Amino acid sequence: MKKLSTVFTVGILGLAVQTAANAKDEVIYLYDWAEYIPPGLLEDFTAETGIKVIFSSFESNETMYAKMKTMGDSGGYDVIAPSNYFVSKMRKEGMLMPLDHSKLPSLQELDPEMLDKPYDPGNQYSVPQIFGATAIAYNSDIYPAGTFNSWNDLWKPEFKDKLQLTDDARELFHMTLVTMGEDPNTTNPELIKKAYEKLLTLRPNVLTFNSDNPANSFIAGEVNAGMLWNGSAFIARKEGMPINISWPKEGAIFWMDTLAIPATSKNPEAAHKLINYLISAPVAEKVALEVGYPTPNLLARKKLPKEIVEDSQLYPPLEVMKSSIWQDDVGDVSAVYENYFQQFKAAK
């Protein structure tokens, strides 16, 4: 981040005021995850550009997608934040506008390992905002290191009624399919059925399903092992809890929350400016410190405390990244996954 002299800063602020006066009627609409927008962030953007941002938050990709579908061609959002597998789904359905990379100079600051993924080759429709992973978490006061090396370890009978799983159909089937050596993004109903049958043998070990602040169960001592997001485990450790992450040998479940422009955006020029701002190093650093999840911005990482960026349980080693498969859209087959998932939850 460039350091500005006082005189230059005053000049910039004066320019921002002038820009604001020239663009006083320019307003764009952002639809993002609430925790990714710390207080004052959007006001700073307005001061720099004169563009006012109206912010709305959503709690799930499904909610965001359904609202975008309902709004149709009259959709009022200019920037949205779909997760990776919804980027795949929405671009296939023509819901996203191709990005102009020449208007996104901050894109060059991002980690190449976070770019050009199968859900959006060449990042034609989306750019990374925050990423995370689901792995095996355990209380190191209860279980020694090496207890969990594979997803298959969760099936061991000594964990009867002791595990927490995420309340997410795709994540549970992803975990199970990779233990079978199969594609976690399969659309083959027979393979999904076989995965369901294996999942049923895990059901006696499951105490709870939780995707709503799942670290709280560990912090409260209600569970001591199971599936957990790396950022949630990091937050638990900050609270003084000895919650460690083990990266399964079959690979973790990686996800990316992105930024994209809906095809119905009324102001794509301003939308590019907002996206570039949100992925820039100063903002990425602030968000990473706020939410505890890894940032894909390499310049921002250099500004973060060493105890954060050198924490291999938060920022996965390269070999973990390379061994893991990102979730992708499975189309209408998602209903098959969801149906089996509900049966799995009701089985006990």
TrEMBL record:
Subcellular location field: Periplasm
Keyword terms, alphabetized: Periplasm, Signal, Transport
Protein species of origin: Testudinibacter aquarius
Protein name in UniProt: Putrescine-binding periplasmic protein
Name of one Pfam family that matches: SBP_bac_8
Principal location listed in the UniProt entry: periplasm
GO cellular component annotations of the record: periplasmic space
GO biological process, one term: polyamine transport
PANTHER family: SPERMIDINE/PUTRESCINE-BINDING PERIPLASMIC PROTEIN (PTHR30222), SPERMIDINE_PUTRESCINE-BINDING PERIPLASMIC PROTEIN (PTHR30222:SF17)
Keyword Mitochondrion: no
Gene Ontology MF term list: polyamine binding
Signal peptide: 1-23
Family named by the database record: Belongs to the bacterial solute-binding protein PotD/PotF family.
UniProt: spermidine binding residues: 35, 85, 168-171, 327
Source taxonomy: Bacteria, Pseudomonadati, Pseudomonadota, Gammaproteobacteria, Pasteurellales
Lineage: superkingdom: Bacteria
Purpose: Required for the activity of the bacterial periplasmic transport system of putrescine.
Keyword Acetylation (UniProt): no
